[in-house]
Amino acid sequence: MAEKVTIADVARHANVSRQTVSNVLNSPEVVKEGTRQRVLAAVETLGYRVSAAARQMRTGRSRLLAVRIETTQDGMNVFDRFLHGLTESAARSGYRVLLYAAGDDRAEIATIDQLLGEFEPDGFVLTSTHHGDPRASWLAERDLPFVTFGRPWGAPAAGHPWVDVDGAAGTESATRHLLGEGHRRIGFIGWEAGSGVGDDRKAGWSRTLAAEGLDAGLTLETDGSSAQGQAAARELTGRGATALVCVSDSVALGALQVLPAVVGFDDTPVAAAVGLTSLGQPLAEAAAHCVDLLTGRLSGRPAAAHVLLTPSLVIRKEPRS
Amino acid sequence: MAEKVTIADVARHANVSRQTVSNVLNSPEVVKEGTRQRVLAAVETLGYRVSAAARQMRTGRSRLLAVRIETTQDGMNVFDRFLHGLTESAARSGYRVLLYAAGDDRAEIATIDQLLGEFEPDGFVLTSTHHGDPRASWLAERDLPFVTFGRPWGAPAAGHPWVDVDGAAGTESATRHLLGEGHRRIGFIGWEAGSGVGDDRKAGWSRTLAAEGLDAGLTLETDGSSAQGQAAARELTGRGATALVCVSDSVALGALQVLPAVVGFDDTPVAAAVGLTSLGQPLAEAAAHCVDLLTGRLSGRPAAAHVLLTPSLVIRKEPRS
């Protein structure tokens, strides 16, 4: 590589002081427009690049956003799409994504604490928020910038920025789709009550049936597995259900072994592979909003407090199973 | 948070100079054992943590390993498992994973160049190596530490460390499995010739049939889609094939619409969902080896030049489609 261009080289080339170059790079609003343009031209001509370490020492900013990498046991998740969107959106704003793994909330907090000491990320993106989630309050108490992908379930007064997908709106559109196909006895296969995401998805189904004056009693809880989804579908069809809205593609995959009129949630590759109608989350958009809310806070820009996105129903005509 | 403990606090507490503390943290071999223990005790007592920026200024090390986040169009990939393994293994060695996105090799090199200027990663993990891959030579020419997940296809003399999965051994075990079930006319559905990974997977199938004196002519190339997989399966069964080894789960999913004796590659969530027998790559192990080879080079430890792992056949009895 060519020899490193220093801030002194830029200053000499633009005929300004090193402090002015630093101001242009770190507090451009204090520099006159003409000077700013001259310095930026010198930066470009010389190919000056700010060393992360030097910049961090000077500005206290690492330009790193930290996020936990998620996994699920059945691999039927779409977190990789969110992460890809986050990486691309962060880069467009001059930030990079730092990954960490953690087995549970407690381990995640310990890891965040360690990262703060070692890498000093400028902000954090928390995913999979849930009732009694200690992570957001831990960060809030320390006044650390963060955004959550997921609402502050059970803590609606939490003042932090968040982005989420409207699960109830999703299952409402799924239920309306099945009503449009002539179904009247539409069941719901969910997770155990008490999960914010699961209860929200169930609410959209039940309110839609209630609005039509139809029975919203055909529902069962599962552990989220395809096996329990299949068993629940068998019981609900035994009780007269002709169509089922499901809390996840995993559950829906099991239900699909019992009857064809099934809608899943998340539009995973598995849904596409087996021809399952499902609700797709706008994950790239959600990731972009997360970056926007977080970098907005970091740069003092006023930004929306939260963003609620609507999932899209992906209708597939011929389930294969 | 408590006020930050500085290197000066540690020096005072251990009754040594700041240079000695720095030596203990960065070049422990130059410090006497007794002094080293006293300093480390002070570090622990005071809860001193090295700031990344300060350490990087001092040591020239960022403790960051950079890797591109991959996506595939059909979402039927297992990169997220590799990335999870990489994140965990890196953390165990005191490194963190920095993500970047890039659309092609040229964009990836530009992004790496930019990262070098901005974040100075200590090393790079390249994935999806292929014939004529310019990335490895770009890094090698600059003497930057890196490891590839994937062999240096077409450049066997490349001296860089690599980790790969033995695709030919995988399709050999798939072919032997089908032979054991009584099949004699076993076909192969691949990608277009010229792909290192695809040609390797085909080679294991053809050499196994050749060793048994059986016909290895039942083979077709596809674009990797399920649709072309299905069409190829139809043609190959028309030519007498009773079983098929496939280059990917995506292709196998299409073939499964035509006949039940199909083996895929990658053991994706889709394979599990539809009951497809498939070859699973040991991705956590591969990621751990990548970190080991790279951190070995970074710390001057002698390390293996490369590691070739064997995939496992995951046999599923009842395909659903």
Summarize the structure.
2 copies of one chain form a homodimer. With 321 residues, chain A is α/β, with parallel strands linked by helices.
Structure notes:
- The structure is a homodimer of 321-residue chains.
- Chain A has 321 residues and is an alpha/beta fold.
- Helices cover 46% and strands 16% of the residues of chain A.
- The first copy, chain A, has 13 helices and 12 strands.
- In chain A, α7 links the parallel β3 and β4.
- In chain A, α1 packs across α3 and α10 crosses α11.
- Chains A and B meet through α4, α5, β2, α6 and α12 of A and α4, α5, β2, α6 and α12 of B.
- β2 of chain A pairs antiparallel with β2 of chain B, so a sheet runs across the interface.
- Chains A, B: InterPro entries: HTH_LacI, Lambda_DNA-bd_dom_sf, Peripla_BP/Lac1_sug-bd_dom, Peripla_BP_I.
- Chains A, B: GO terms for molecular function: DNA-binding transcription factor activity; transcription cis-regulatory region binding.
- Chains A, B: Keywords: DNA-binding, Transcription, Transcription regulation.
- Chains A, B: It comes from Nonomuraea endophytica.
